[in-house]
Amino acid sequence: MLVSAGQQGARISREELVTAGTVEILLTAIQNHPSVPAVQQNGLLVLDSLSADPRWHEEMAQHNGVQVLVASLREWASSASLQCQVYKILSQLAADSTTRTDSAWVDGIETSIAATSQHPAATALHGNVWALLQELASEGPSQARLIEIIVHAGALEALVKSLRKHVDAESVQTNACALLQMVVSIPEFREDVADSGVVDAVSEAMLRMSDCETLQLSGCAVLLLLSSEPSCLESVVGGAIDAVVQAMDRNMLSSSVQQNASGVLLNLSASGGAAQNVIVQAGGIESIVTAMFSFPAVAQLQVHGIKTLAFLAPNAKFRQRLVEFGAVEVALTVMHSFPELLDVQLNGCGMLQNLATSTEIQSMVAQLNGIKIVLHSMNVHQGTLELQAVGMGLLQNLAATSENCVAIGKSVGLRSVHHLKPRS
Asked: How far is CA 6 from CA 2, 9, 20, 142, 383, in A?
């Protein structure tokens, strides 16, 4: 046991060890004795234990820590356990963005991805490799360059294999999806991801671990960014919809999951009838309405939700289901809550215009104060011709009942609709 002078038997603190130059000594020993297992293993254990010290990153960078550890990885390529230790330490080192400019990371990335193929069954190693690459791909001045290296080194193919091999390992699934989220944050790599089989692998992971919020958040973020690219949209339409709807249903307390998932459904619903049918069959209408009622103050979620419902409403097959699951109520609620948001007002009026084609729905809209809400929307957005046209179309539908016709007349009074303000 290490002891300090004059204090035989007393443990030395982590701070004292770092200050005394222990990091340099350990790295030198690891470098000079590459084939001695005890030196490698014990040196790595002590380096790991020192990583919480604030000066550790600086010491590691100053003494070529990345280069030394990557050399150890190559020397011990056959030892999954030793490599696992190294990846853990490298992940902690990569968490500091200032260390990511080290040129030794290039070899480290290629070695790491190769290790997942050499040790396909080593769960802990896979989890640590994806954790390391996730840190390297995080936002920072070197992000785009490092992600390019990661993709070109074969990470996408390796990720798919890893996700499908280690189906019950949360660390593998969450770290792999988090890395993918970083990769697709760079638009130029989205087509590569879409063509690699990643969408199916991520969707399968989301369906298996539906209660893991971290995985659902990353998975939905990956699908959201891919579905925003027209060239990648088709790859997301398949099994991803079931995964996204289930994510919403099983993570009802997470506004972030709801927001990302509803964004995916919006992008897909905009693509046309095939995706819309799958969304409705998967229970997407119920999930969207529930999310909108659950998080009434999250504006982006409300925009995603109302626009998705507006895309579905023109299809007569979906209208009864929209009404049954509360689309009318939620549309009027969000229009009342966000009068200044044109997206909300335009899509809310448009959806209600499509739904209010029967006396029953026309009366329902009026009973929910819909006439005043629509008139207020038109008053707030007087200069938006499209909103004025859709609003007038909705009022025309509502005026089909004598009661509503009288109510509209009383609300408008002798003033034009464009200058009307709702009564308190």
From this structure: 12, 9, 16, 47, 83
The tokens for 238 are: 């398949």
Helices 273-281 and 299-312: angle between axes, nearest 10 degrees: 110
Q: How far apart, in whole angstroms, are the C-alpha atoms of residue 366 and residue 179?
A: 49
SS3 132: helix
Tell me the DSSP string of 169-229. Answer: -HHHHHHHHHHHHHHHTSGGGHHHHHTTTHHHHHHHHHHHTTT-HHHHHHHHHHHHHHHTS
Residue entry with tokens 């200058």:
419
Q: Measuring CA to CA, which residue among 306, 304, 314, 238 is closest to residue 275?
A: 238
Q: Please check whether residue 150 is in contact with residue 183, taking contact to mean a CB–CB distance below 8 angstroms.
A: yes
- What's the gap between Cα 376 and its chain centre? 35
Residues 111-162 have pLDDT tens digits of 999 999 999 999 999 999 999 999 999 998 899 999 999 999 999 999 999 9
Quick one: which of 208, 238, 210, 213 has its CA closest to 223?
238
* Residues in the chain, total: 424
Strand partners, 4: 7
Give every residue of the chain whose pLDDT is below 50, as ranges: 1-8, 414-424
Residue 197 tokens read as 């089989």
Q: Which run of H or of E encompasses 351?
A: helix 342-355
In degrees rounded to 5, what are phi and psi of residue 143? -60, -55
Q: Locate tokens 């959806």: which residue?
A: 351
Structure tokens at 354: 């499509």
Tokens of 245: 């709807």
What pLDDT, in 10s, does the model give residues 68-123? 999 999 999 999 999 999 999 999 999 999 899 999 999 999 999 999 999 999 99
Confirm if 223 and 199 have CB atoms less than 8 A apart: yes
Taking the alpha carbons at both ends of the chain, their separation in whole angstroms is 78
